[in-house]
Write a structure and sequence with these properties.
This protein is mainly α. It has a two-stranded antiparallel ribbon. Strands 3-4 form a two-stranded antiparallel sheet. A hairpin with a 2-residue loop joins strand 3 and strand 4. Helix 5 packs parallel to helix 9, helix 6 crosses helix 9 and helix 7 crosses helix 9. The longest helix has 18 residues.
Length: 307
């Protein structure tokens, strides 16, 4: 049971049920550190004028980007969290994950890690606490923090922006049916990686972020979602889907039928083998390479089959 999940009397997302398979996806957040867009004159030691935080970055990536932009030792920004006095929801327990809003931020001459973190969190609060998001969260029987958590998963799982509202519906459908989410992205988060291969041992990880074994949402967001992912989280597309797989670039298929999903997976594996004869043999060596997931069109995911 996730620590941040309210009792059933306040939200329907905690209902338990029998486990079932879900195809999970690639983390779309980049692994590189942000490169400030604009630089000031005066040589390589000059601070940049602005800092870009892409959608889907994790907090650790943001901290490192701020350190580099401000020319301070790595780790400085993370250490400054305690004195930043960030205005976070109580459920966050001081962890700004999900609230370092993706945007381009100006860097003033006197900018500090604390001031930039505050700027990002205040921006997130402006975006998230307004009527559309707050009302949408309430309409879906959840609080804003849970909506941000769902949006972070959508940001990581959706192959395209057009798929976001459908991925949101899969998440809601599985939660409402008491099914575990079984998202690779949550495991990748706790392991601080962005791999597309998930092994059987990964799914046995003892962690509240292991959505193969734990019911409900992870205890915190797993990235910092953008506005489109937030819109999808509070406005899921209508549908009965429980599974999804990107059969080929631009062709993500959503279905409520496990049998149909398996046929889609078979087609995916056939396309994968045609594109790379060794791909099927060189995937995760500890799991059957038959159940695959939605992910970035540019990559080939391997996902553990569980049911």
């Amino acid at each position: 049971m996730q620590m941040n999940t309210p009792p059933r009397s306040t939200i329907r997302l905690t209902r338990r049920g029998r486990g079932a398979l879900i195809a999970t996806g690639a983390v779309v957040a980049a692994t590189a550190v942000a490169v400030p867009l604009l630089t000031m004159g005066g040589g390589e030691d000059a601070r940049p004028r602005s800092l870009v935080i892409p959608e889907g970055w994790r907090s650790g990536q943001v901290y490192e980007a701020i350190d580099k932009a401000l020319r301070v030792p790595l780790g400085t920004t993370k250490k400054s969290l305690g004195k930043a006095n960030l205005k976070l929801p109580n459920d966050a327990e001081g962890n700004p994950e999900g609230y370092l809003f993706p945007a381009t931020y100006p860097i003033a001459d006197k900018a500090t890690p604390e001031s930039l973190l505050t700027f990002m969190v205040n921006t997130a609060n402006q975006k998230f606490n307004g009527a559309p998001v707050a009302a949408g969260a309430q309409h879906n029987a959840m609080n804003v923090y849970q909506a941000v958590t769902i949006a972070s998963i959508i940001q990581a799982e959706a192959a395209t922006k057009a798929d976001m509202s459908k991925v949101a519906r899969v998440i809601f459908n599985r939660l409402e049916r008491g099914m575990p989410l079984q998202m690779d992205s949550t495991i990748n988060y706790v392991l601080n990686r962005s791999t597309l291969n998930t092994s059987q041992s990964d799914t046995e990880l003892n962690s509240p972020y292991n959505s193969y074994q734990r019911m409900g949402l992870p205890p915190t967001p797993i990235a910092n979602p953008g506005e489109e992912a937030m819109r999808a989280a509070i406005n899921p597309a209508p549908g009965d889907w429980l599974y999804f797989v990107t059969v080929k670039p631009g062709d993500t298929r959503f279905t409520a039928s496990y049998e149909e999903h398996l046929r889609n997976v078979t087609e995916f594996n056939r396309n994968r083998s045609s594109a790379s004869p060794t791909a099927a043999a060189t995937g995760s060596s500890t799991v059957p390479p038959t159940i695959t997931a939605t992910g970035s069109p540019a990559v080939t995911p391997t996902v553990v089959p569980t049911r």
